[in-house]
Fold this sequence. Notes:
Layout: E1 6-8, H1 16-31, E2 40-42, H2 44-53, H3 56-65, H4 72-87
Antiparallel strand pairs: 1-2
Helix pairs in contact: 3-4
Amino acid sequence: MKTTYTLPLADPQATIDTVGGKGLSLAKMLQAGFPVPGGFHITTAAYRMFVSANGLQAKILIALNGVDVSLPASLETASATIGRFFTESPISTVVF
């Protein structure tokens, strides 16, 4: 079975498991007839592959370790750090 890394926004395979909560919300909005800009989903399989290929899971957990949810600055710092992990990591051309 081939792994799917992208799906059209209105694809019936767009579920919480395949595209996450935001993706599912967009798919439901389309199905209900709401205006949604064109686009596509990056699947959770693509996310997991990217995180695994770049060894990000441990780094993400370390960044979250020092978060105190009562201190917004700690959340912002962790978010910025995790964001850098993603922007500084290469996308594998083998899969895509």
